[in-house]
Amino acid sequence: MPVNVEPTKDVPHPESYARDAVAQSHSDNLRVKANTALILKELGAPIEATDEERAEALKLFEQVDGVDPSKEVQKKESTAVAAIGVAYELAGYISHYDKQVIADKIQLRNIAINRLLEMSKEDDQKIAIKAVELLGKASDLFTEHQEITITHKNSLELQEGIREKIRLLMQMNTIDVTPTSERLTKDLDDDKSEKT
């Protein structure tokens, strides 16, 4: 069943935002534009980059994960990356770089674990025990457990707690005092006396 939607002027339009400032940093903005170009290519958009666009993308790649340049340079680079070919080539550089960073981290982890394995065979028991402890932590064998205790109250305790909170709220200094508050207090007291 179709839904008819009719625009009205009752709700104000949202304030517009700068399209160049999508993310928090310049590096993040470059990544967003590069990822957008990559998705467009995956969806079938015909994207071809020229040699000039490749060179521009390589210059922009140096800004990724670096210190944010001045606002003027950011605006110039945002304009350059608006070209779909530059953004697509930049996505390729970023993807390759990210894969290399992950591979380097895996390699460093393997080196550290191998060194700990060697140290666990030391004659000095302090070094061996510490190495085994660190190996256990690296492989998530030792996890900290947190104990959570939940106490449940029965319905009578909950009702009494709610009544007490209402009484406290009613005794607060208020400007509008109406006879209904007195009636409500009396009704609450009557309910309490009937239950007991």
* Main sheet: strands, sense, barrel: none
Low-confidence stretches: none
Question: Based on CA inertia axes, which overall geometry fits?
Answer: flat
- Roughly how much helix do the residues carry, as a percent range? 55-70%
Distance between the termini: 56 Å
Helices and strands, in order, run as: HHHHHHH
* Mean pLDDT across residues: 77
The gyration radius over C-alpha positions equals: 33 Å
> Total strand count, please?
0
Number of helices: 7
Structural class: mainly alpha
Strand content: under 5%
Describe this structure in words.
The protein has seven helices and no strands. With 196 residues, it is an all-alpha fold. Among the domains are: 26-94, no CATH class; 155-175 and 185-195, no CATH class. The radius of gyration is 33 Å and the shape is flat.
List the SSEs and their pairings:
Blueprint: H1 26-42, H2 51-61, H3 71-81, H4 84-119, H5 125-138, H6 155-171, H7 179-195
Give a short overview:
With 196 residues, the protein is mainly alpha-helical. It has helices at residues 26-42, 51-61, 71-81, 84-119, 125-138, 155-171, 179-195. It is 63% helix and 0% strand.
Features of the shown structure:
196 residues; mainly alpha; 7 helices
